[in-house]
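Quick check before the chapter quiz. The format below is the same one you will see on the exam, so make sure you can read both the input and the output lines.
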Amino acid sequence: MQTDVKLSTKFLTTQNAHQVGLLVTLSSETPPRRAPINLALVLDRSGSMDGEPLHAAKQAAVRLTEFLGAADRLSVAIFDDQVHTIFGPVPASTPGAREAIAAVFSGGSTNFSGGWLKGREHVESGLVEGTNRVVLFTDGMANQGITDLPRLVGLARGATAARITTSCIGFGPQFNEELLRDMSVAGGGNYWYIESPDRMTDIFAEEIEGLVALAAQNVSVEIRPVHPRAAGVTLLQHYPFSRTPEGGWLVTLGDLYATSPKALGAIVHVEEVGELGKTQVAEVRVSSDAITAEGVEHRVVTLPVIVNLDGADHVEPVVERTFVRFQAAQAREDAVQQADRGDFDAASRSLRQAVHGLHPYLADACVAGEIEDLEAEATRLEERRYGAADRKYYMARGQAALEMKQSYGDKLSRRRKPQE
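Here is the expected output.
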């Protein structure tokens, strides 16, 4: 795994203070071997899934099973108001998964928690030295079993202690996007929003690519300020974090895939600097369980953060561009809250302010696409066009930007060209 740290420093004259922008990027080449996969597919078959949504989910589930081999494990559970296991848990090369999935039909209510718990049970029964994951497909609300959002998120977070991660795939306008997003983040997996069934296979390929290109697990980054005038750290994304006894910020990033780098943005605040000049302000410690040819190897990399606090700006364009994109992602979430209150003008202004911040980086094709999308959605809000699908779209696009999932964001985009 490669660790890259870029810095961008700004001087605040009113406080004789400095803001040290810190961008930690983690990437990897394809690992020397594919780690085993222990997978539980959990399919919502409640009544709202009837027709095209269930058909698309079944197709995506079958496609995933085709990537598994004899070294992998597979189970398939379905749920409405009841939960049933229709395949496994067995070695993934065991015949019958395709036929079992094809026979699934729609039923009644949505026992979301029961489905997830059954998937966890199957994964836990045969843990592997690789990926142990529950992948849950749903289009509805949790209205049977455990329905409390914090409790469900806590269950997903707790499962990570047993090395079990959770990915959630929501499609259509009715599911609870906060629940699926927060369970996925807390559970160390992925959150995917599919606006229409015809996007299912395309977007679901992102989950498949990650599963078969796992490069490292249990990735965490600790930012520990060491400068005597360090006043704190601001984290720019929504990754789970905790404070360490040494006064650091420990951020949990989950799994790293060769197909998708991870980036962590933070600002270290250094106030009332008396002695100007080059100095160490923090330490970055990256911990991971890397996939190697021999197995899984625990690795720790520690890097000093040394900057020039000389009362001047030392701006790094890559850092500033990335931070502005994080701010645009936050603007989408702000717009959701404002539109939920019926303040569509404020929501539109939030998106247009994000466009203004992005304009200096218009030459970047990714930024140009983001600007196009933000402007189009700002116009929709001005026209009072806002519903459940829009809410999910804004939140999913924002989450994709915060997690640096450019490929997923492009596939999700409403501005995507038909031939792409």
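If your answer matched, good. The mean pLDDT is 90.
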